[in-house]
Write a structure and sequence with these properties.
With 255 residues, the protein is of the alpha/beta class. The chain has helices at 2-33, 36-52, 83-92, 112-115, 121-127, 138-153, 178-185, 235-254; strands at 59-64, 75-78, 96-101, 130-133, 157-160, 190-197, 218-223.
Length: 255
């Protein structure tokens, strides 16, 4: 009986992976062949299918003011554990552009079924509304800053994981400063988000990505109060406040 249960689970997992790959391909093709408006509708439908349908198959609990999900021209920040963080938050908010590492689709630790897309790097960045950033590169940093301001001024949103990489436990250790400087200097509101998974899903930089952890979980999402920049006296205080807000729900379980 146990062996039969394992086989059924493996077939279900295989179906989830195949479905995910198919949706990635559809999203890619829609970006290449359709108008921006039409491809975005397909994009949002795909994420709705992934997150709310049977693919990721998560139970999602939301704590906080759901009206904030309709905000425009904001920066969304959150703790980061795995690729599903991006999918879940992208499904919650509209017009989301995501800051990510420039070699995301060429990572050696990617599962083999995602490595097949590495040759389509540029198209994938466009199709997922990714904004590539090369760490430690001033020119790349300046370019990303200009894109952020352009997107915000046009009423779109920016999603950033300010720790810069995922972690096993999802509890942030340190936030990078650039985002908070940009937000503070340009008076851009920030919405901090905490994602707390029931089963461990996180990876450290040196870990191999395990797609088995991507599916069938339960996550509690805490939407914290919007941080209006004019209420803070410095970007350092803004950074510290957001850091503590995101960490608290994760530490409650431990303490």
């Amino acid at each position: 009986m146990k062996k039969k249960y394992v086989i059924i689970n493996m077939f279900f997992l295989l179906g989830q992976i195949i479905s995910l790959v198919i949706l990635i391909i559809i999203n890619l093709l829609s970006t290449i062949f359709f108008s921006k408006e039409r491809s975005y509708k397909i994009y949002k439908f795909i994420f709705k299918m992934i997150v709310e349908g049977p693919i990721i198959s998560h139970k999602i609990n939301i704590i906080g003011d759901k009206k904030l999900l309709n905000k425009k021209g904001i920066i969304i920040i959150g703790n980061h554990q795995n690729a599903q963080d991006f999918a879940i938050l992208n499904n919650l908010f509209s017009n989301v552009n995501v800051i990510c590492k420039h070699n995301l689709f060429k990572d050696e630790d990617l599962p083999i079924y995602l490595k097949i897309f590495s040759k389509l790097n540029k198209y994938l960045f466009d199709s997922f509304r990714f904004i590539p950033y090369k760490r430690g590169d001033k020119d790349s940093g300046d370019k990303v800053k200009n894109i952020i301001l352009e997107k915000i001024n046009s009423g779109e949103n920016i999603l950033v994981f300010p720790e810069g990489e995922p972690t096993r436990d999802g509890i942030p250790k340190k936030f990078k400063s650039g985002l908070f400087r940009t937000a503070f200097e340009n008076n851009i509101p920030i919405i901090p988000i905490t994602l707390k998974y029931k089963k461990p899903v996180g990876v450290n930089r040196e870990d191999k990505i395990n797609p088995l952890k991507w599916f069938n979980n339960e996550v509690t999402i805490t939407i914290h109060k919007i941080q209006n920049i004019n209420k803070e006296s410095s970007w350092e205080e803004l950074k510290e406040k957001c850091f503590n807000l995101i960490r608290k729900p994760l530490l409650d379980k431990i303490e």
